[in-house]
Amino acid sequence: MRKRWGTIVVALTLLVSTVAAPAYAVTKRDIQQKKQQIQNVQQKQSSIESKLEQSQQEIARLKAEQEKVNAEIKKLDLAVEETSANIRAKQQNIEETKQQIVALRKEIEEVTARIEQRNELLKERARSLQESGGVVSYLDVLLGAKSFSDFIDRMSAVATIFEADRQIIKEQEADKTLKEAKEKQLNDKLVSLQEQLNELQKLKQTLNEQIAAKEKLMAQLKEEQKHEEEKQLALEEEKELLEKQEAAMKNQLQEMIRRQKEQEEARKRALSSRGSSESSEGSLPPVSDGAFMRPANGPITSTFGPRWGEFHYGVDIGKRGSSVPVVAAADGYVYRSYYSSSYGNVIFIMHYVNGQVYTTVYAHLESRLVGEGQNVSKGQMIGYMGNTGRSFGAHLHFELHRGPWNASKSNAVDPMQYVPF
């Protein structure tokens, strides 16, 4: 903000310098220089417009980038949402698998119990065979038949026992295989689910890291956009001031030829009225050489310096006639013309002399003949001496400031050092 105000102050100073007229006669060279100044300002405007266009393009690019990042963040948010749902599903699957493991462990315990029972039965059968002589016992059983019918019955019984033994062995092997298969199946499923869960959790962490990076990028883009918008605002302000400066320069260029003619006419009037001015205070003061001329005819009744316990920041010119004209002390620009409770009817004129800004003040006027925004020439009539505001007797209070006027009057200088009274 401080930098922006600095730019505005500098531009306003340039603006004042362009509208204030030079303190010398206008020449063709002056006109040419003024045209060159206008061209320079136009070139600056063109440069500002180019920078504005670049700034607008940069803002548009930043907005497009933000939209793109927003879309990516939304996409990542959806991916996180989906991954979180998958994580919950995997965790549910793991819990269900763990419950299945508990149930299968009970089943495995039952299978193990059956295997143990069959082991005991086989062991008992083996002991019986060993005690009876193994296979021979089967022959004894068959040979001990008392009839053919008994032999057939005994053969059927032996075959049944033999088949039962074979079935027990098959069931024993099948139960062992089932136990091993189910244990492996459960372990593999649990490991697989845990691996999938770990992968999902890593994916979610990666997605969250990407979202954080995108949000950081978004914040950076917004900051860049804010900076670019502030830059654009400063450029727009500078452009507006350059436009006003260009308008003021063109106005000055249009006035320069007319002012040159007015200056010449004022000099002629001064020469023609020089003799009569010695006897009449109501005539225009003669246009003198130098940067400034006296603003009105009449005696100096109060000078610059301490007076009545206060400081008097100007000189007073006494009124010695019914209607005493007041003229511009130098070529300049009327930037204030109004009624003040202290100054009464007052006119402020800004001058630009040899690269220096000056301000002249004409107070306690009876009437004002020029308004704000007017260009005036040295010696041009701007009002009549009066007694308005805080004034004790009709007179002209004239101030000269080396620089802009301010309320503390810190720029006030002694007019006697600049004006040939």
Automatic annotation (TrEMBL):
Residues 1-25 form the signal peptide. The keyword Glycosyltransferase does not apply. GO terms for molecular function: metalloendopeptidase activity. The keyword Aminoacyl-tRNA synthetase does not apply. This is Peptidoglycan hydrolase CwlO-like protein. Residues 108-182 form the Peptidoglycan hydrolase PcsB coiled-coil domain. SUPFAM superfamilies: Duplicated hybrid motif (SSF51261). Residues 311-414 form the M23ase beta-sheet core domain. Residues 272-288 have a biased composition (Low complexity). Residues 259-296 are annotated as: Disordered. Residues 259-268 have a biased composition (Basic and acidic residues). Keywords: Coiled coil, Hydrolase, Signal. Residues 24-132 form a coiled coil.
